[in-house]
Automatic annotation (TrEMBL):
The protein's name: Extended synaptotagmin 1
UniProt-listed GO biological process terms: endoplasmic reticulum-plasma membrane tethering; lipid transport
Taxonomic classification: Eukaryota, Metazoa, Chordata, Craniata, Vertebrata
Membrane topology field: Peripheral membrane protein; Multi-pass membrane protein
Domain named SMP-LTD: residues: 82-263
Annotated region (Disordered), positions in chain: 783-816
Domain of life of the organism encoding this protein: Eukaryota
Organism: Accipiter nisus (Eurasian sparrowhawk)
GO MF, one annotated term: phosphatidylcholine binding
Family stated for the protein in its record: Belongs to the extended synaptotagmin family.
Amino acid sequence: MERRGAGLAALGALGRRLLWALPAYAAGLLGLGAGALVLALALYAGWRRRRRARERGMRLAARLQRDEEAAVRAAAAGLGAARGELPAWVSGSSVLAQAWPFFGQYMEKLLVENIAPSIRASNTHLQTFTFTKVDMGEKPLRVLGVRAHPGAHKKQILLDLNISYVGDVQIDVEVKKFFCKAGVKGMQLHGMLRIILEPLLGDVPIVGALTMFFIRRPILDINWTGMTNLLDIPGLSSMSDTMIMDAISSYLVLPNRLLVPLVPDLHEAAQLRCPLPRGVVRVHLRGARDLRSKDRFMGGLVEGKSDPYAVLRVGTQVVTSRVIDDNLNPTWDEVYEFIVHEVPGQEMEVELFDKDPDQDDLLGRMKLDFGEVLKARVLDKWFPLQEGGQGRLHLRLEWLSLMSDASKLDQVLERNRTIVAKPDPPSATILVVYLDRAEDLPMKKPGKEPNPMVQVSVQDVTRESKVVYNTSAPVWEDAFRFFLHDPVNQDVDIQVKDDPRQSSLGSLSLPLARLLDSPELTLDHWGWTCPAAPVPAPVASRCPQHVLRIHLLEAENLIAKDNFFKGVVRGRSDPYAKVRVAGRVFRSRVVKEDLNPRWNEVYEVLGGGCKVPLRRVLSSRIVDEWLPLEEVKSGRLHVRLESLAPSPSSALLEQVLHTNSLLQPARGEELSAALLSVFVDRAADLPVTTRRLRQPGRPVWDEGFSFLIKRPHVESLELQVKEEGGQPLGALSLPLPQLLASEGLALDGWFPLAGGGPGSQILLRAQLGVLVSQQVEVGAGSVSPAGGDAAPQPAEAPGEECGTGGLRQRLLPADR
């Protein structure tokens, strides 16, 4: 009997193997080609992958709900034994059920009056978007448990609410222009919601504000109706329902917060909305052991290995390690850093996957609350993998506290030099930029308000704000966080742009060294933003300005980075170059599939002071040479550097314009011919319409600005004096030909202000200099080729109107 059973089992296994050949056999009988067979298999694989992902999500949600209900029942049994019944504030079922209809009325009003107009303004194809039905259903949100924590200080109370929502919500939308109807019919939301009661007051209502957020990404499942129709609309075709749900889930998680002020004029609102982080955790991903083999060949008869990689997730912060091919005991030795906002509660999740051509298989996962790292300060151990996985994961975690002074910065920098870290060097500080608002932004088209958005960049890391539609005085109230490796020599660049045209409304560049000299490493004030000028530099020192002109010509013998089929087939690269110099970053266009790209692009940057801070001094005025590329084994870059100094001689202008026409590249901005330096001293007899002037009608600014001028014989200097609220106090228009006709190309004195009332005038000096070549020193910035598919970012055009923007910034060095 045993032999017979074994024989039947072997025959069954052989039959299952033969089933894999049936599609090919059927295709041959029907006369179909190999393409039809491959298409059918691809469609089947995609359907199976989507079905498995949805089933996995539903199983996780159901398991989480069962665990939460079991925990609440256990807690209820304990409380019942002690007090006889579960307190109403723990479950809250009857209260939420009674309030749910009123919450539905609030949501309907919010969606129709606030959300719908924003959606219509965000896309020209959605101008007929409307909510046709908003019904939150009869099933309310449930609170499965509440846990209280001590706050970071005495004026703070922390509450964690374990919530579960399996609702019969129905929301219908319509886009009449495309005859499109879609909506939501039922959804599930499960997760831990943290509510912070802060600040505590000595008067009613006792609590000044509520702050709400999910510590970890909640489990969200939405039953869409008509989603296919909605995604057919132009501008939405690149999205998917999975992308939409990921965006919604991320919006609910730290560092995003919902602030509900309970008292008017709350002074701490900005700090509560974007508080400083609690610390930084440096994670050293060392390796793993005894992982499960997921690769099978010949229908599972031959067992292979796995190609593991790790995904580390802390809230919305996600990093992915490199893939180790064919290894069940991989070693990564990679270092990552995560900003921590809430402890206890915020945790890190690490998932290990096997890289496959179709769908990556889960090898296991582990979770760790950062409260344990805070207690231990340094945690170095092997963690067992959960969720059906086997094996262990080796991590070293280090808690880094934040300091508000620079006394230990040198010590931190010295220590970081001893740390071998990849893919990025260890950070010495973090930078938090709080973006408040802007005022008086220019209108690129008469009568049409801009749609301002902000890009904040530090080196090659760029963060973007939300878009505020149809206003020249936008309010963002957003925060951006950056890791800094060398704060002494780094800058933060801020650009205000008009979305979706992406035309510049203003820019500001701030050397971070200024923050190191500021009290508590903080700058909190209004800043000027000008498309044409760098950070305002006073001209009173009378030191000549320099302009560095960088000709990015070509590169050769670059390394091919595009590989296919795990490196079996070697492709090429799509190179572009980044040029970092004097706090600015330029990026060339992408040259597709070329290891010897030719760019022929020109960039110009202002250098302040009496010399360009470059390392190697050459006797020639122009440097034209091939530079070897660092950190790679092959390749070199051809650049031409030219240092230009302003000369107060109009006789040179025609020669410079002619030379520029010969050097002008086919792509890029027109070359600059002159430098305009404007020093604004003071004004007199202005109309007294503001209380913010130190001396009514006689303000003193003592500030300087510099502009690159392309055609000085036709351009003009436009100056406007306004009060802080935007009301004009006077204007001055100074044609640059007047400077060309003046002795020394300069005008210095009092100038009348048009529209400012009798006697209104301004004291300034305007100096024009024709740009001619002088000696160059190589090495001020770095020219680094990079691979990828990025859009070019040319230098901003000079001479446009300036606006004002409010920027609050804070720098904190990290130390253990």
